Amino acid sequence: MAPEAATPWAEHAERSLSEAGHRAGGARAAVIEAIADQRCCRSAQEIADGLAESGSAIGRASVYRAIDVLRGLALLQRVDLGDGELRYEPILPGGDHHHHAVCDTCGKVTPFEDERLERALHKLAGDISHSVDAHEVVIHGACDRCEPGSRG
Questions:
Q1: pTM metric for this prediction
Q2: At what angle do helices 26-37 and 8-19 cross, to 10 degrees?
Q3: Partner residues linked to 90 by β-bridges
Q4: Does domain 98-152 have CATH number 3.30.1490.190?
Q5: How far is residue 90 from each of residues 71, 81, 128, measured CA to CA in Å?
Q6: What is the mean pLDDT of each run of 10 residues along the chain (152 residues)?
């Protein structure tokens, strides 16, 4: 990946791989680039399909191996939206993250951020005397197009 195209997460991932003694070239570099460019969580198959569409010859097995290494270095988080297919998205160095709303009718996934929710989760952690290293919120329901009576 050209330095001018690198995202902070991609640079962080490449540095972490190098420090852990892994090479960042080939399949890993392509997977890092694909993940760095994604807006929300994607499955390994979606990552492999995206690479294939861009002309890459990297197979699904190589994508899974790269994901395993990146997860082992705490660079990727697994996201379970409840549909039986695991998805992945980068763990950003500064801790920024988003959550997901899933339409159980059409499958649309909408990422969202809410500072009030973050404060409430940290308050709850204090109330129950529990530290929070990470959290994931997935809301299920119907999107505006699928909700009966909506104008979507």
A1: 0.80
A2: 150
A3: 76
A4: yes
A5: 9, 16, 29
A6: 62 94 86 91 94 92 95 94 92 85 93 92 93 88 84 54
